[in-house]
Amino acid sequence: MRAPWLQCHRLRFLVPIATVAALIAPGAGANAGPAPAIPAAAAAAAKRATTAPTVVTIQFDDTYADQLRALPLLRARGMAATFYVNSGYVGARGHLSSADLHALFAAGNEIGGHTVHHANLTRVAAATARREVCADRNALLAAGFPVTSFAYPFGSFHASTERVARACGYNSARGISGVSNRGPFGETMPPRNHYATRTPPIPLSSTRLSVLKRFVTDAEAHHGGWVQFIFHRVCTGPCGIYSITLANLTALLDFLRDEVRAGRVAVRTTAQVIGGPMRRAVSP
User: Fold this and answer.
1) CB neighbours of 213 closer than 8 A, spacing ≥ 6?
2) Is the entire prediction scored with pTM above 0.70?
3) For 155-170, what is the HEC assignment?
4) Domain definitions of the chain by residue range
5) What tens digit of pLDDT does each residue of 247-283 get?
6) The domain at 55-274 falls in which architecture?
7) Given the DSSP bridges, would you call strands 197-199 and 243-245 parallel, antiparallel or unpaired?
8) Which carries the bigger pLDDT value, residue 32 or residue 69?
């Protein structure tokens, strides 16, 4: 295992994989028809070269409903984020609905995959790992999302799961570590391994705003790189260890907006950083 896994909030319900596509897009099969095309605006944005050597990607994991609070903040600052979705939880209590996902996507945000049931891929059989990864992507494709980016649940992966992510049609897969204030100060662009991209530690509810800003300024001071921020819940008050307050998220985005205006930073989605083709659905 190349990245330590941590104990995230575990959900107590499961949705059978066979029902996932219907849950997100009623009547659509996971392998129905060709994969949707990337919207013209998103394709154009992905092709634009970035002049800033430091690129920041805002990411949200686990499909929590309160992540929708980030939408007006991002839109007001002309930014887009990547939302890594567990398709088996879409529409479940406390989680984003299909309509929520489409609202996020319509605003320019990226929808990525995160397995059907938030499975720790290093602790299940190979066939189960493939089913969790491929069926998740297929369900999201069937719902109309051009899914090319994946995040390992718990940040837990090894060589076998990297091959699964690639085989299921993803262009990249993300862990949860590898960048620190001792270096490296950012992931390289392009990454040294597209299926094991490195990030700063996951922010906790106790993580100070100054610490988050420092990851960006450290990258700026060390010839740039890619800084991926991973968030889970967005709360107006205490709501768990893996959360950020709405106030701190607002302040972070304001800071990034100022860095963008100064020409020091570009804010991009994962797909815009990685690039690559849009692949068709793959049988689990």
Assistant:
1) 252, 255
2) yes
3) HCCCHHHHHHHHHCCC
4) 55-274
5) 999 999 999 999 999 999 999 999 999 999 999 999 9
6) Alpha-Beta Barrel (3.20)
7) unpaired
8) 69
